[in-house]
Amino acid sequence: MAFVNLKNKEIQVKIVYYGPGRGGKTSNLEYVYKKFAKRINTEMVTVKTHGDRTLFFDFLPFDIGIVNGYDVKIQLYTVPGQVKYNATRRLVLRGVDGIVFVADAMAVRREKNILALKNLQENLAAYKKSIFRIPFVIQYNKIDLKEQGIPLLPLQTLEKDLNSQLKLPSFAASAVLGTNVIETLKRIISMTVASIKKDLK
Amino acid sequence: MSYTLGQKQLDKIEDILKQDLIDNGVRCVFLIDMAGNIVANLDNGEKQHDIYSLAALAAGNFGAVSAMAKIIGENEFSLLFHKGKTENIHFNKITTEFLLITIFGNDISLGFLRLKVSESVEQLKAILEPLVSL
Amino acid sequence: MVDSKDVDNLSSELESRLDDLFSETNGVQPDAEDIDAAAYYPLAELKNLILSIDWEITDDVLEKFLQQIKDLKLTYKHDKIVLAFLQILNSLGNYIQTNRAKSHPKTFKILNSVFSSLDKVVLTRDMAETARKKILRAEMNRYKELRNQISQGTSFTQPKAEAKPEKSEIAKATEDQPGTLTEPSVQPSETEIFESTMTDHGQEPEVVSLREPSVESLSEAVEEIKKYIHDEISALKKEIDALRN
Predict the structure, then answer these.
(1) What total number of domains does chain C contain?
(2) Phi/psi at C188 (nearest 5 deg)?
């Protein structure tokens, strides 16, 4: 739930990167952190396993500056993607204002993408939130692997699998190279802030 | 979905936290929501922590511990407190949506802190409860 | 206030248990074993209660604490030094019970410190009387300092350069009325006990019931509140009637 602080003229917003394990959620945040290191004064918090898998969450707060007289502070989180961490995913989703679904474009991950989306829908429902009504953006990540000859799902397939009903803004991206990472982020931030403003009225 | 707190409410919250806790030797206190947003934060001027990370982790920690409680058949735990060599952290829920987190040294006894926190929580409830019914 | 009936019952039970213990020549009966354990470390229960207070302050724990002190006062009625320690603990316990969250934060540190010293005095066999007095004196000084801080309304944090107006007001108020305590139940009569113990005149130290004065002032306060509520309700009733007509 976004928090509007009238005293400090501040809006705090929570955006969660969700998706199957090893899909690139953490990589998205790492890219943003690297790119905006000068602007982000805090460290990125990562709670992960020895094997470098996200265990609890990654966290990256940053200030996007004054918008309409309000200082907008964004908190980015990722969830652990592995199936066994569902309880944790649900925790991290608490109070979420906007979601980026990071799908894995690799052909072998097709099933996992669909399951992860379903899982998201269930976890949101636990908080009486609907996947159809929350600010939401889809990212099809790992397009850079095409160069390496790894079979990827065509965009049409991905759209059909994941976006046919939702009809969300979608971006083909490469978190590792940074392609469309910032664009994805910009889009979800503006959608989320717009939705908060609507609430305020 | 969002909630708003006005100047008056936030001033009142800060007053309560200052008088009940900071003025009684608590090093740092912050009031957050379960999403990890910081509603108010005060310290005694000695040390500056990375409160944004603390808030995110605190919310996560509390959430994780609450989930564990449910698994073992408890509705909730009455005490969540971490003891360090020189610094300690205490968590207290306020309504279902907020958390009061206090960081204090060994010069305050836990028993006394719990009494003070209970008092603060009662007063803060009055301000925060109307928001929860959103 | 000490209920003499309870004291009588307790002492007679204690007497009979001690008789049982010392009449046994072989084997150790379970009862005697308990006494043995207690005799070996008589402060065990008190220690538990002090640790509990450190962890959580409840009516139950405070009641037990004060009761335990009463019991120990009997056990140690011939030891003036230990009695003095117990009286300090008693006073602190009463203060906490009355003031709860409004207690001075240092109270708990002092409570632990006094107990720790008492523990040392009790457990160290053959401690010289002078050494015992020295330890007691140190604790008494800490206790007095706390009492002074309480009566001056000193807050826990050291006043910074930008001292708030409220604090100087409190200091001023207490300056005008020396000896006025902002928190009750810490009475000057303790110094009398302390002094009589320390000068060792061979007299029994005055076991002044420190609760009495504060109970009186408390009941006065309660009466005042009752009267106030009664007056307010009458006034409200009148207003309601007036509105009805």
Answers:
(1) 2
(2) -60, -20
* Domain-wise residue ranges, chain B: 10-132
* CATH code, B10-132: 3.30.450.30
- Counting residues of chain C whose pLDDT is more than 70, the rounded percentage is 54
Residue C167, pLDDT above cutoff 60? no
CB proximity list for C158: less than 8 A, separation 6 or greater? none
Residue to mutate among B109, B116, B120, with most C CBs inside 10 A, is B109
Nearest chain C CA: its distance from B132 CA (Å)? 27
Residue A1 tokens read as 């739930």
To the nearest 10°, the Cα dihedral for C20, C25, C27, C31? Answer: 10
User: Do C102 and C45 fall within a single domain?
Assistant: yes
- Does C230 reach chain B within 8 Å, measured CB to CB? no
Protein fold of A3-200: Rossmann fold (3.40.50)
Give me the helices (H) in chain C, please: 4-23, 30-40, 44-55, 59-75, 80-99, 107-123, 129-151, 165-176, 189-199, 211-244
Are C94 and C188 contained in the same domain? yes
- For chain A, say whether B17 makes contact (Cβ under 8 Å): no
Spatial CB neighbours of C212, under 8 Å, sequence gap ≥ 6: C1
Sign, CA dihedral C171-C175-C176-C179, equals positive
Same domain, C118 and C131: yes
pLDDT of B119 strictly over 70:
yes
Structure tokens at C160: 């910074």
ipTM score of the complex?
Answer: 0.78
Collect all residues with Cβ–Cβ distance below 8 Å to C13 and sequence separation of at least 6.
none
